[in-house]
Amino acid sequence: MEQEQQVPEQMKVAQLVKYNSPYEIKDKSVPTIRDNELLVKIYAAGFCHSDLQVMHGQFGSELPLIPSHEPAGVIVRIGDKCKGGWKVGDRVGVLNFKNSCSACAGCNVSTRIYGGLDPRFCENREMAGFKHDGAFAEYMVADPETTVLIPPSVSFQQAAPMMCAGATVWGALEKATAELQEGDPVAIVGIGGLGHLGVQFAKALGYRTIAIDSRPEGRQLATDVPSPGLMADLVVDSTAPDAEEQISEFTNDEGIAAAVVCTDSLAANAWTLRLLRIGGVLVALGLPPERWQFDAGVLVFRELVIRGSYVAGVESTRRMMQVVEGSGIKSRLTVVPFTSVPGIVDLYQEKSFSGRLVVQISDEE
Predict the structure, then answer these.
(1) Are strands 97-98 and 126-127 parallel, antiparallel or unpaired?
(2) Which of 214, 251, 264, 309 has a 20 to 30 Å separation from 119 between CA atoms?
(3) Strands 256-261 and 185-189
(4) What is d(CA 223, CA 68) in angstroms, rounded to the nearest whole number?
């Protein structure tokens, strides 16, 4: 088996050198890999809201740091002790958590709960783009345990945001619908980069899907999908006087079976809880600065469930990529060249921006 391709000694990277300052493009040595790691040539990398939080110093990252935790590329080197049958030339996406210690409480508990080591909960894990170098670089180091194959029909540009935005809302949807049947009503609340994918995932899995947003841009995004089969069955303006009536009629007065809330709005989360049917599940993805506030009476007397959800684990992400390939799910993308990275935050914060923002790191050969 070929263990590596020819790789240059130097590469271009974009670094966060100072908090709240634009990224700087620099030259840096191509990283070396350990025996249990992969070296990936990056073709596309996403910019996520979490990258903005890193820039503001919310994660206490040690600088300088190469940002981005949404990479897609090709394996060019394989460590001698890597497992999993990886090959040079494999098209892959990489999740941000890697190199778990397998000995801490997080590793031990998650192994018992999930039936195998789950690097997401390791107390000593590395976090690409958050605490360690990420994907705004021509090459990056990957852990084979948190690397997934990209189907041939999925472009690098489309695959990149699936490694965080897609995996986050997919993981939440799997938790929300674990006990549901095809045809049950499911709501996606907050139609942005995550919610846009959540609507498509829910439809692809066969649920009667409601897209809810207070913004006309969000409601429009819910209908901007690759095919009619991925469009929400009902799009609701949450500020409309008859919003609850629309949802009640759609669900035959029973209520929503499950909801994934992709906004940190306390009001939106509290309102969504009231829409659930008996035994309904709400998965909250937002991280509000304030404490959650839910109606105890509704929660108790309808026996509702509120769940948190971290980004999906590797096996869940592999299931997601199969659905993406089979259903033609796509993000609405804005793609910029690597040279535009220093101004990417301004682009992301424009009021007119919607969907996902992806940087083309290298041109496909």
Answers:
(1) antiparallel
(2) 264
(3) parallel
(4) 28
Question: How many Å apart are CA 173 and CA 185, to the nearest integer?
Answer: 12
* Per-residue pLDDT, 305: 97
Positive/negative CA dihedral, 333, 338, 341, 343: negative
Backbone angles phi, psi at 338, to 5 degrees: -60, -35
Cα-to-chain-centroid distance, residue 241: 33
Residues of the chain with pLDDT under 50: 1
Name the DSSP letter for residue 211: E
Q: Where are the beta strands (DSSP E) in 51-166?
A: 71-78, 91-94, 97-98, 126-127, 139-142, 147-149
Distance CA 241, CA 61 (A): 45
What does 277-318 look like in DSSP terms, one character per residue?
EEEEEEEE----SS-----HHHHHHTT-EEEE-PSP-HHHHH
Could you check whether the bond before residue 64 is cis, i.e. omega within 30 degrees of 0? yes
3-state secondary structure at position 354: coil
Cβ atoms of 255 and 278 closer than 8 Å? yes
The pLDDT of residue 364 is 72
> Hey, what's the torsion of the CAs at 167, 99, 114, 324, to 10 degrees?
20
Residue keyed to tokens 């590395």: 126
The helix (H) or strand (E) run that includes residue 337 is strand 333-337
Q: How far is CA 284 from the centre of its chain?
A: 14
* Chain mean pLDDT for the chain: 94
